[in-house]
Amino acid sequence: MVPSTGPFEWASTPFTMIATPKHVQNLSDTKTDEYVEAASSMAVFHNLLLRSLNTIYLQAPHVKDGDKKAFVGYAYCWYDAIDAHHTGEEQEFFPWIEEAAGEKGIMDANVEQHKIFEKGIKEYGSYLRSLKGKEKTFSGDHMRSIINSFGPPLHQHLSDEIPSLLALRKYGDKIHLNELWDKQSIGKFTLHSAATRIPFYLCNLDRTFEDGLWKDFPEVPKLAKDFMGNWVARLNGGYWKFGACTMTGVPKELYAKGK
């Protein structure tokens, strides 16, 4: 059961989650093709981005001065995550798909959508960077206004990208979508991602989503997940209290709440 957060509905608003094709098609106990698998994995990751953006939007006006430095750091993790995701798509994932299909331009519509909200996301990152050393001047209302400028078209894009991946099924076995998804450099561990990006993912990955269908997502050894959640996350420990979930993926009450 999702915990109550006063006037808020946990981290499920204002941007709603995206149903995965695997769940929609009731394929939880069925072997599926790689198009359904890859599109579903993409949806789970997109939901992580939306859920974490919700935590920032909902908590921003209620963060106390003593927590603002940590919150700014946490909020910047979202910028780092979305920037890495879309850079990875444009430089690796989409070109690889087009190369495998033998057809240029089939992913152009997705890239064009990136341009619609690019300016707003850059403003988001620039604002947070401008607060370095003066985090107490952070304005939750200003943060919300920036998110309002790009949030709706971003949500539309993250939703639209799922059927666009499913539509690639027409290329049959020419495209090994799961392999292309897995080999993106965004998914490889670096010192930076180990200290910030990975813990940010963990505390916003709801493992109860769709009746627990994604409780083992991603397929990483439990020992590695425990190490990241219990030890590496301590490097920026003040950040993760703002997450939607515990490090084990259990939904939790939002830390900064209104009255």
Automatic annotation (TrEMBL):
Xref: Pfam families: Hemerythrin (PF01814)
Residue ranges constituting the Hemerythrin-like domain according to the UniProt record: 45-161
Top-level lineage group: Eukaryota
Name used for this protein in its record: Hemerythrin-like domain-containing protein
Species whose genome carries this gene: Exophiala bonariae
Lineage: Eukaryota, Fungi, Dikarya, Ascomycota, Pezizomycotina
